[in-house]
Amino acid sequence: MELNPLYETIITDLLENQYAVCDAFFSDEAVQIMRAELEQKLETSEFKKSAIGNKSDEVVKEEIRGDYIFWLDEEYKNQASETFFNTINDFVTYINATCYLGITTKEFHYAMYPEGTFYKRHLDVFKNDTKRKLSIVCYLNDENWQPEFGGELVIYKPEEDIKIYPLKGRVVIFESQILEHEVKPVHRKRFSITGWLKTS
Prior knowledge:
Blueprint lengths: L4 H13 L1 E4 L5 H16 L4 E2 L18 E4 L7 H21 L5 E9 L5 E4 L9 E8 L13 E4 L4 E4 L6 E5 L4 E4 L6 E9 L2
């Protein structure tokens, strides 16, 4: 397999720090295509209130989590879906071949945080399902996102708290079963694609 310097940097960061931040994972054009579909789904009211828990345990708790989501279907072929999943699948093929992670499935959704919402500190695994291995977030916000807009992702490590702002096109990848994290209150609408790479 041909060496991919971008993926190798991500892998190194994951091995050393358990998380990676990449501002060149998707092209500017790809980000625009995905943002356009997110906005279209919002306009047609296809988002739903997010819940916590898994399957039969799901419950909406706005004091913990305030975003709205739309689940992505890889089988639904359109420009946005193919733009996103082609890149994700290329990354999965690479890390499976080089790191032997055994990723077999994935799940992703668009996410929109209205002003004033947040997601309290949590871990991305369930008591009845530990298949999630890597969490991935791709930010689809406006170009001029400023720190005062809030909505930063905070990753909690024993030695420090990592604060990551949701800049347009930025991708954050981290170990789902290890790193607790939260989304701080947002002061304007915050857009992303969020999801997980999973084992069988």
